[in-house]
Write a structure and sequence with these properties.
The structure is a single chain. The chain is an alpha+beta fold. The chain folds into 2 domains: 2-101; 126-270, no CATH class. It is 58% helix and 9% strand. The chain has helices spanning 12-15, 29-35, 41-57, 62-65, 90-98, 105-154, 159-173, 179-185, 200-219, 225-245, 260-270; strands spanning 2-3, 18-19, 25-28, 66-74, 80-88. β4 (66-74) and β5 (80-88) form a beta hairpin. The chain is elongated, with a radius of gyration of 26 Å.
Length: 283
Amino acid sequence: MSRKTVNERTSPFEQIKRVNDAGQEFWSSREFAEVLGYGDYRNFEGVVEKAKIACFNSAHPVGDHFVDVTEMVLIGSGAERPVKTIFLSRYACYLAIQNADPKKKQVAQGQTYFAVQTRRQELSDESIEEERRILLRKEIRLHNVQLADAAKNAGVVEPLDYAIFQNHGYMGLYGGLRQDDIHRLKGLKKSQKILDHMGSTELAANLFRATQAEEKLRRDNVKGKKAANQTHKEVGAKVRKTIQELGGTMPENLPVVESIKNIETKQRKKLGGSTHSPIEIKE
């Protein structure tokens, strides 16, 4: 565990920030209370409890943001004694400061600090998610071409047959839902592709379905449209079962997000490149 090197002009909230060996930042509730001007820590405990309730009501795991620990602190004689404290994540600090005494000058400063820092983190997370989506979407475009080739070798030749084959993969992964069903469920327009409106988690599940279906078709030398369809459905169902066993959200329940085409266009504009969409691969 380490502390960040600071100077006198650094925010007092930065000065008491700690960073663990994994690079995760956190704050001690006792130090946090002191910076906020709470002379008696017991008065701050009620603030933390309100913050925990706000965290729970926001559907965030309380245990991920509020960690009860016992620390050894120095007392007047130079000896140490154990005291109970709570390690707070940045989000936990943000919630705590929203429930602290607004009359305290330090609280007002903290509200500004954590509001700004939390927003910066959100923007950073959004940027990472966009990059993941772009990468995964490109991979799916590529692997859908390879999957189509493997399906063709199995006997899926005509466009209608391939559409049926693709539906079997979706049915396995989405609990019996066909592509049109997913489209309607997610409230997308006819012109919108479901793959373009998937977040990285859903894209990754579909990429895994596509790659594993292709490999199984080739490895098992599957022949015939019926056998190919069944293989694709079974692979999709296996991916779904894995998600379920891991406690993940079923893909049909994941939210619809901004079109990947809009994100790609914004990135090309930033780089000063063409705003035309990339060549579409039939999927």
